[in-house]
From TrEMBL:
<feature type="domain" description="Thioredoxin">
    <location>
        <begin position="126"/>
        <end position="234"/>
    </location>
</feature>
<dbReference type="InterPro" id="IPR013766">
    <property type="entry name" value="Thioredoxin_domain"/>
</dbReference>
<dbReference type="Pfam" id="PF00085">
    <property type="entry name" value="Thioredoxin"/>
</dbReference>
<keyword id="KW-0413">Isomerase</keyword>
<dbReference type="GO" id="GO:0006457">
    <property type="term" value="P:protein folding"/>
</dbReference>
<dbReference type="GO" id="GO:0003756">
    <property type="term" value="F:protein disulfide isomerase activity"/>
</dbReference>
<protein>
    <recommendedName>
        <fullName>protein disulfide-isomerase</fullName>
        <ecNumber>5.3.4.1</ecNumber>
    </recommendedName>
</protein>
<keyword id="KW-0676">Redox-active center</keyword>
<comment type="similarity">
    <text>Belongs to the protein disulfide isomerase family.</text>
</comment>
<dbReference type="GO" id="GO:0034976">
    <property type="term" value="P:response to endoplasmic reticulum stress"/>
</dbReference>
<keyword id="KW-0256">Endoplasmic reticulum</keyword>
<dbReference type="GO" id="GO:0005788">
    <property type="term" value="C:endoplasmic reticulum lumen"/>
</dbReference>
<dbReference type="InterPro" id="IPR036249">
    <property type="entry name" value="Thioredoxin-like_sf"/>
</dbReference>
Length: 234
């Protein structure tokens, strides 16, 4: 029902009931601009919106919307787009809260290519990241991972197996488990083909292959299959 009753390109306001319809059922492709439904600005809005209509008709499993920058100021700030100098910005949000920003200029050809790349799984999301650590390893021979170095150290590195603990500082279960993880790292430190690593999810966002929805979460990443890790199920 929702697939057929929603508009082809809807106006996503900051009202919760409208937002929930789009955000929880479909990935959302959002066009951010200064929305004014009267006068000259309305014609300018329509110029951009009409470019989405043909594309939206092709991709029925994505909710295409246009949004006023002011209504979504806090979200744009999270996406580092609050100071954008573009007339419009185009962002896709998936159902796991990952987002993908189109960096090319906004036209029908670029938007179509961007959406097709998202659907085919060829886009990498923008990930919030803490600064790169000053030291690669701590005193327990545990490596610190952040979003900025995850691809290089994990996904594109087939030299070693890795055991990665995803945690947050505010999680009591994580605090209780951390000494056990450190003890295990010490016990296996002679195994040069295995690296123990920590990933702070309070200040970083893990890539989709390592989705962590509760904490602590542990993944074993085999050296020959880093994009298909094994999640430890308690």
């Amino acid at each position: 029902i929702l697939r057929t009753c929603r508009p082809l390109v809807g106006h996503l306001t900051n009202y919760v009931q409208v937002s929930d319809i789009y955000r929880t059922v479909f990935p959302k492709a959002a066009l951010y601009m200064d929305v004014n439904l009267k006068g000259y600005e309305y014609k300018e809005n329509q110029f951009y919106i009409k470019k989405l209509w043909k594309i939206a008709a092709q991709f029925k499993n994505i909710a295409f919307v246009f949004c006023d920058r002011e209504d979504h100021e806090s979200l744009l700030k999270e996406n580092n787009l609050e100071n954008s100098e573009n007339d419009v910005d185009f962002v896709i949000y998936d159902l796991h809260n990952y987002y993908y920003i189109m960096r090319e200029s906004f036209n029908e050809k670029n938007v179509r290519k961007f959406v097709e790349s998202y659907v085919s799984g060829n886009l990498r999301p923008v990930l919030k990241s803490a600064p790169l650590p000053e030291k690669e390893f701590d005193e327990y021979s545990i490596r610190t991972l952040v979003s900025k170095n995850f691809d290089q150290v994990v996904l594109n590195n087939d030299q070693k197996d890795m055991l990665i603990l995803f945690y947050t500082d505010w999680c009591d279960h994580c605090k209780k488990f951390m000494p056990i993880f450190v003890q295990a790292a010490q016990k296996f430190k002679e195994y040069t083909n295995l690296t123990f690593s920590l990933f702070d999810c309070a200040n970083n966002v893990p890539p989709p292959e390592y989705l962590a929805q509760s904490y602590p979460t542990i993944y074993f990443a085999p050296s020959n299959s880093k994009k298909n890790p094994i999640k430890y199920e308690r």
